[in-house]
């Protein structure tokens, strides 16, 4: 985007638009209307550090105003503060703290196959740590289970933020929790919704060991090689190639899409130029597991879709937004289709996302179906 280019030059905008979480200390709810107004009125071309400083300043100002019952600062005072912050940002003080160093990237890949009912299922996965300072926050599950005469295949991507505790917890527990629901064999969608909710409650009650972080989730369960149940919260996505059609099996829960529910709960959605929409100026998705500090304004109920897997179903992709930010559904399917080996396909997808300069953690699972 041309505007973004200019801004980068002028303000040295160093944060990536990719970062899922925009970090500043949690703001008491009573200040949110004030912040809301301020963010909107000042959403000029600010760099990240400038915005953080401005928000903190505003917060301190509001506290002092409330405590002393003093007159709120007049417009020229705010303008003056703003000008100083601009100078500081321009010439010294904020650079570096938020810049991303390209830490050595690490990667993980693998594959597996099984016959499920009348369908041969094979999968491959590829996960690449992004160019961020923190450890990998994408986790995956790819597993076949035979239980009580049912064939089950599980696939999932969990994209964490503010730490890896929550996605790691989901990797260990979410599928078990789904299977633990009695209803799973009769009404899988209801079982999945209940299990998502119980899992989120468990995460929130594990204080303080799971920390402040959160995670998106996309889960796909194939029952007896014939029924595919896909659920998601957040912006991890799944697409299915069946016949000549590419179906998106998930809903991207971006803050603007869930805006009314966020506002009904007393939160707000920031739409800053050069940045993605964020819940309360912080989180870039409207639904997530965990996220204790934002939970009162977030949802964690999944959207669910089901499709029949028959001889026309060819492949399924699950991936984190590190992939979807740089390619659309059809492009991803085109790349995945090229190789019959799903592991090669998965690696080509993550390699292509890297080539397109995705800075986030990138992870994907490619599943191939073959009726027999
Ligand atoms: C899966 O297949 C087995 C045997 O073919 C059958 O007994 C079972 O009920 C099936 N499960 C579901 C959930 O349809």
From TrEMBL:
One of its GO terms (molecular function) is metal ion binding. Its EC number is 3.1.3.16. Residues 252-262 have a biased composition (Basic and acidic residues). The chain crosses the membrane at residues 21-39. InterPro entries: PP2C, PPM-type-like_dom_sf, PPM-type_phosphatase-like_dom. Its cofactor is Mn(2+); Mg(2+). It catalyses: O-phospho-L-seryl-[protein] + H2O = L-seryl-[protein] + phosphate; O-phospho-L-threonyl-[protein] + H2O = L-threonyl-[protein] + phosphate. PANTHER family: PROTEIN PHOSPHATASE. Belongs to the PP2C family. This is protein-serine/threonine phosphatase. It comes from Rhynchospora pubera.
